[in-house]
Amino acid sequence: MVGMRIIKTLGAACGLLASAACLGVDGPLPKGDYLLTVSRPGATLNIVDVTSDKLVRQCDLGVGPGSGTLVPSPDGKIAYVLANHFSDVYGVELDTCEVVFSTQQSADGVRVKSMASVALSPDGKRLYTHQNRVRLHRDHYELLDTVIAEFDTAGGVNTRATRTFPAPRQITILDRLESGELLLGGQDVYLMDHETG
After folding, report:
1. Radius of gyration (C-alpha) of the chain in whole angstroms
2. What pLDDT is stored for residue 7 in this prediction?
3. Average pLDDT of the chain?
């Protein structure tokens, strides 16, 4: 993966790549520049060689679609994709299409949705999501406070949040500065300390 540069998109592909045939590149991706995008139906991570303008690999996540938001790891080996109806993030190893990480945001009667709000720490060890949460009761939903959830990217599949911070509502974009501080964007823009919240 040394010498590979990842070019990312923030948004689902318009179906253009969804019908393309995979060229069948097995094993590690050759050195080069790649565009990563997510297409529907379902959630398929598409890896496109920007030099040849050819689709080189498709990784079907086997879950429902989401916003198509993705964040590549700093070393360019894993793409973290928000999918499954805005509910979970999947870490996909680009060389093998293996899911090596996933969140389990909804649990214990609380349904969680994250609208395009996923970010990684500068070292790639922590993943952050903005969680819109509701508690499911038999006859109604109980609106809960929104939070920023932090996940350990070495946690493997079905990882739960290691900690949460209170966060404002209506956040649709989450990013981070090189210093690690989180930028929360929505109706207003906020800067959050990644250590203290």
Report:
1. 17
2. 45
3. 86
| Pairwise CA distance, residues 158 & 92, whole Å | 13
Distance between CA atoms of residues 179 and 190, nearest Å? 15
Residue 23 has pLDDT above 60, yes or no: no
pLDDT at 25: 55
Please say whether the dihedral angle defined by the alpha carbons of residues 97, 32, 10 and 118, taken in this order, is positive or negative: positive
**Domain edges within the chain:** 1-23+33-102, 105-197
Q: Is 180 left (phi over 0), alpha (psi -120 to 50) or beta?
A: left
Q: Tell the CATH topology of 1-23+33-102.
A: Thrombin, subunit H (2.40.10)
How many other CB atoms are found less than 10 A from the CB of residue 164?
Answer: 16
| Cβ contact 44:55 at 8 Å | no
Whether residue 165 has pLDDT greater than 70 = yes
